[in-house]
Amino acid sequence: MKFYYxxxxxxxxxxxxxxxxxxxPQFVPMTEEQISFxxxxxxxxxxxxxxCEMYEQPKEPTLDEMKLNAxxxxxxxxxxxxxxIIPEYKTKNAINSIMxxxxxxSESIIYEENDCQEIxxxxxxxxKKCRDLFYQQKQLIENAETKNEISQLTQESILLYDxxxxxxxxxxxxxxx
Length: 177
Fold this sequence. Notes:
Layout: E1 2-6, E2 11-15, E3 27-29, H1 32-40, H2 46-51, H3 63-85, H4 88-103, H5 113-143, H6 147-167
């Protein structure tokens, strides 16, 4: 038997007779080492056969790893949701303005005091709402018993944050966060 691989199509071909590789250059004869490797690893890919080396298969995340990833994802989504409703720079500018007002430095005021109060009130309200939702969903994820449950809770969390965005007049939610 003659062993070949066709690199272009990523296939292994076993022929009873020798193939004329000058006429059929897509057939690449396998070396003895490659043949031996292939016989020991019949599910190996052409790339693995060519190198006589099995590639490490990606590990599926454990339940705990999946929980941590889901919690990180909703934490990030929570912060982005809050920032989309009331941008962080506005909150910082409002705080800096209040500090300037309190210190008597009217030159450095970015927003008037009433505007600062409105911005900070909204920032606190949205921040608390997003934070409360995060901790509620985090607890559910930590208590999840299956990977499917974690996936469902993650998607549910995203939808709940999207509702917060919509309630605050932002309609182009999840795809832009």
